[in-house]
Every structure is written in structure tokens, then in C-alpha cells.
Amino acid sequence: HTPPNVLTFWRFAFGLLALYLLSRRVDQVRIEIPFVPHELPVVRSLFLMALLPGFIAVALYYRGLGKVPASVATILELSFPLVAIGINSYFLGFQLSPVQLLGAAALLASMTGISLAYSKRGAAEPAGGTT
């Protein structure tokens, strides 16, 4: 059993490596990264994006998930993309396509169904297991 923080590290390490390799192959594309000064090289910008809002935030998030009941962890994990969409829409002005809105509605309906099922059963064990 591999700890979540180790899995999170490798997830971001491989993602960062893939983005780096992609940035080396696509030299005609100018990458615009919000909130990062344009004079920073792409590689440094990718590293900052992977480390600060990526790895550290997600590592703290998963550590917290291990301390709440499984029913709460399930809902929080499923809501993660919806919250990210909301933040992107509010702060960066991104708009969803009709298909994306349909997907968000399906995810919200799934979360509601799972929440109702768990509330009927009363699952109270932490997602990280008993401590």
C-alpha cells in the first residue's frame, strides 16, 4: 500500500515531465500562463505551476481526506472538478460548452445520489481507514 502523498508526488512528477517534453517539441507555440510573468521561461513556469498550486495543494487535500468519513471524502473527491470549473469560470472567465455543462450536471447528480445512499447507511469510517 503506497501512501497517497507518494502517489501524488509521482502523478505530478510524470505530468511535469510530459509537459516539459511537449514544450521542447512545440517551439512555435507561445504559452500564456495566467498570473506568471512573461519573462519567466516556460520550463520554470511549468515547474512553479506543478509545485505550488499542484503538488502542495493536492498533497494537503489528500491528507485531509484521510481524516474525514468515507462518505464525506467521496463527495469531496467528486466535487473537486466542479470546484475547479467554478474557480476557472469566476477568476479566469472560462465558459463551458453545452457538453461540458451536461457532464457537470451528470457529476452533480451522481454526487447527490451517492450522498443520499451514504446518509441512509450512515457510513462513519474515515476514508484513510481506522486510526
Radius of gyration: 18 Å
- Low confidence ranges: none
Number of helices: 4
Overall structural domain count: 2
The 3D shape can be described as globular
Order of helices and strands: HHHH
Let me know the largest β-sheet: none
Structural class: mainly alpha
Query: Which percent bin holds the helix content?
Result: over 70%
Overall number of strands: 0
Distance between the termini: 16 Å
Strand content: under 5%
Give average pLDDT, whole number: 74
Write the layout of secondary structure elements.
Blueprint: H1 4-25, H2 42-65, H3 70-92, H4 98-121
Helix pairs in contact: 1-2, 3-4
Overall description:
It contains 4 helices and no strands. It has 131 residues and is mainly α. The protein folds into 2 domains: 1-67, no CATH class; 69-124. The longest helix is centred in the middle third of the chain and has 24 residues, at 42-65. The model has no long low-confidence stretch (mean pLDDT 74).
Please tag this protein with its features.
131 residues, mainly alpha, 2 domains, 71% helix, globular
Short description:
This protein is mainly α and 131 residues long. It has four helices and no strands. It folds into two domains: 67 residues, no CATH class; 56 residues.
